[in-house]
Amino acid sequence: MLDHPKNESSSTDRAGKERISPPKQQQPEPGLDAEMTPLADHGESSYEGRGRLEGKRALITGGDSGIGAAVAIAFAREGADVALAHLPVEDRDAENIESVLENAGVQVHRFPGDLRDRGYRDGLVDEAAAALGGLDILVNNAGKQISVESLDELPDSQVEATFDVNIFAMFALSRAALKVIGQGGSIINTTSIQAFEPSAHLMDYAATKAAISNFTKALAEQAAPRGIRVNAVAPGPIWTPLQPSEGQPIEALPKFGHDTWLGRAGQPVEVAPAYVFLASDEASYVVGSTVHVNGGKNQP
Ligand code: NAD
Ligand code: MG
C-alpha cells in the first residue's frame, strides 16, 4: 500500500483545497449548520449551473443542511424546482437555504416534519409532487448518525431510530415516488463509505448504509423497466452538522477526514455534482451504480 504522508500543519491539501481542522465542539442532534465552526461550504458563492436539470422537479430529504443543502443549491442553479424536507427544529437552516434557492429563480417548497412520523412520511412524496406540479427526482438523503463506543452501550431504541430514518423511510418514500415519477426520472440514495468500511463506533449507522447500498441495486432493477433510474452516492468524511452533533467522538473532530488520501474532509459542495450527474439526462445509461466521493479511500 502507498504511504500518503499528511502534513498536519498545512492549511491546504496538495491540490490547493482548504484543509479544515475543526475545533472540538458539540451540538444536540440533529445539529444546525448555523452553529458549526467553521461553517460548511454548500456552494452558495461558487456553484455555477449550466441548465442540466432545466424543467425538472426534485424532492430532497434532509435538504436544510450539509450534503442535502448543497444538492438543493446545485439542482436549483441547474434549473430544477425543489422541495426541501427537514426536521422542524431545522427551520433556521432551511430558511437560509430556501432564500439561496429563491435567488436562483426557481420554485421552492418546504416540508418540515419527522420521517419517523408515519403520517408525515407516507404523505410527503404526494404533497411535494402536488406543490411542484409533478416529480422527476427523489433524493433520499436524510440520515441519523450517533457515535457509540461499544455495543454494550448501544440501546435498541437508537438502533431502531437509526434504521427507521436511514433505510425504512427509503422504502416508504421510494414506493410513493415510483407511483408519481415518470419515464426519465430518477431516485438517488445517499449511502456512505461506512457501507463498505464500517467504523466500530458507528455500528448501527454503518449497517443502515450497507442496507441502503443493497436496496439501491434491487430498486434499480425494479424501476428500470419503468424508465426510472436508481443510483446512489457514497460520500466519505464531509463537514456537515451530522458530525459535531454526536456523529463523531468530540476528540476526533480536529482530525476529521485527515485519514483520506487527500488528507482532509470534503465540503458538501464537493459532493453535489455527483447528484447532478445522476439526476441529469447525461446519466441516461447509469443504473444501480454508486458514485464514490471520498477524497481517496479503498473502495469497492
Ligand atoms: P446533515 O445533518 O446536514 O443532514 C442530515 C439531515 O437528515 C438533517 O438535516 C435532517 O434534516 C435529516 N434528518 C435526520 N433525522 C430526521 C428525521 N427523523 N426526520 C426527517 N429528517 C431527518 O448531515 P449530512 O452529513 O449532510 O447527511 C446527509 C446524508 O449524508 C445522510 O444520509 C448521511 O448519512 C450521509 N453521509 C454523510 C457523510 C458525512 O461525512 N457527513 C458521509 C457519508 C454519508
Ligand atoms: Mg440539518
TrEMBL record:
Q: Give UniProt keywords alphabetically.
A: Oxidoreductase
Q: Name one Pfam family in it.
A: adh_short_C2
Which intervals of the chain are annotated as region Disordered?
1-50
Compositional bias, Basic and acidic residues, is annotated for 41-50
GO molecular function annotations of the record: oxidoreductase activity, acting on CH-OH group of donors
Q: Which domain of life is it from?
A: Bacteria
The entry's family comment says:
Belongs to the short-chain dehydrogenases/reductases (SDR) family.
Quote the PANTHER family the UniProt record gives: NADPH-DEPENDENT ALDEHYDE REDUCTASE 1, CHLOROPLASTIC, NADPH-DEPENDENT ALDEHYDE REDUCTASE-LIKE PROTEIN, CHLOROPLASTIC-RELATED
Checking SUPFAM superfamilies in the record gives: NAD(P)-binding Rossmann-fold domains
**Protein's UniProt name:** Dehydrogenase
Give the species.
Glutamicibacter uratoxydans
